[in-house]
Amino acid sequence: MIGELDVARIRKDFPILERRVHDRPLVYLDSSNTSQKPRQVIDRVSEFYERHNANLYRGVYELSEEATAMFEDARARLARFIGASDPGSVIFNRGTTESTNLVAHGYARKVLRPGDEILLTEMEHHSNLVPWQFAAQATGSTLRFIPLAEDGTLDLSGLESLLTERTKLLGVSGMSNVLGTMPPLERLAAAAHAVGAVIVVDGAQLVPHATVDVQALDIDFLTISGHKMLGPTASGGLYGRRELLERMDPFLGGGEMILEVYPDRSTFKAPPWKFEAGTMNIAEEIGLAAAIEYLEELGMPAVRRHEQEITAYAIDRLTEAGATVFGPRDVEQRGGAVSFWFKDIHPHDLAQILDQEGVCIRAGHHCAQPLMRVLGVPATARASFYIYNSTDEVDALVGALERAEAIFGA
Amino acid sequence: MALEELYKEVILDHYKNPRNKRDLPGGELSCALNNPLCGDQITIHARLDDGRMAEVTFEGSGCSISQASASMMTEAVTGRSLEAAKRLAGEFRGMMEGVVEPDEASLGDLVALKGVVKYPVRIKCAVLAWDAFQEAVSGPARS
User: What DSSP assignment string belongs to A65-120?
Assistant: First the structure.
């Protein structure tokens, strides 16, 4: 047991963790990329297809009503999971990238004027940068960036000069996928609101790993990635404050999002359905509901404490082994994505050698090229942890690093 | 496949002791390419003399495969006629795409990179320098 999680018992729920890779036990340390799925989620998706499969809303028959009820129940469950009292404030889509693009298109393009500013941070994932570049180019507004401090936290000392009445939108990751950094969201939300800006939180890494309460934090938009929180790929969506969703333009036009259609114009449903065109990822979102049930049973505070313990252990072991670890050292201020540089062995070489030991890590720029430039490295190696990881697996990682060192003679 | 098939002695040697890794003032041909997947960056410089590759050098940073491949490439093409160098580049690409059975007589040490074929995501690392070379010798001269 680490913290309050019974990792041995949890691992039994994840069929893939039984397999071997290159004749070694699988050591999966890439959950920031995508998480593995428990039997409960896999079964829920199968059960949907085997027992309830039908399209939503439009069928006047039992199966369609069941599918619709399951889908809307998943929406309510996700809303409750992030502290949103209104299920209608949750839009389903393929996840964080699609959600950011939805806000950039439906909200930012409508609201921003030339001379307005979008404030981001230097540590954003491309998915929380490129959509804003599109919006800025389309509206004549400007992107500005909160810099990183030496210790991998955000340098908020100049926040007052960066966040001004020109700022209409603040976009920030709730937990960096490279550094693990968790910015003070409540403070940032209050600062954004004080100048009349909205705050968009990239929740790709945050929501799977910590308790999130959009109402307590006073967040306007939160993007959610289902596949990083035990759910199926292409599950997840966007939370948006109801009055903002009402103001937003639709993004994708098509079936199901409309009320009345004439040859030359249409009227649209209310949110969230206004933003859900075409046949939805029904089985995926229903599978996500099973993932949320699984996490709720463990309890998100326990999930967070488990990851803090394993992250602290990993930072210590990696540092002892001679690696340079990026990001905050204090696990109160960070999550379990641990990027490191090991003895001038290129991360790609490192990941390849680790793979032969059954250890899966990510190597590369992690979709954060501007951050790599700030850190002064072409790429990093990254180990990331979740509920099914043990300190033994951190030991396996460190052991594999020694093998890499032997090959490269570094 | 064992890791030793990928990280052969000759590859590690070129990675740790790269040959011809320098700028080439006066080299009329040049091309810079990068591989966004791993952040590898390679710049190839070349100087032609009477239709022959008189000098070929590289600069850059990246993983062992990209850097070793660049180093080996500079040695392999230097002294060849432009046409022979281009032919060799084509043959190397063929080996990396798995469509040409490598001929050790013409490829020499480069055959060591054949192990990369088994690791699809790394093939781009191995061909980066060769792509840059091919662009350098087919593009406009550096002013």
Answer: HHHHHHHHHHHHHHHHHTT-S-GGGEEESS-HHHHHHHHIIIIIHHH--TT-EEEE
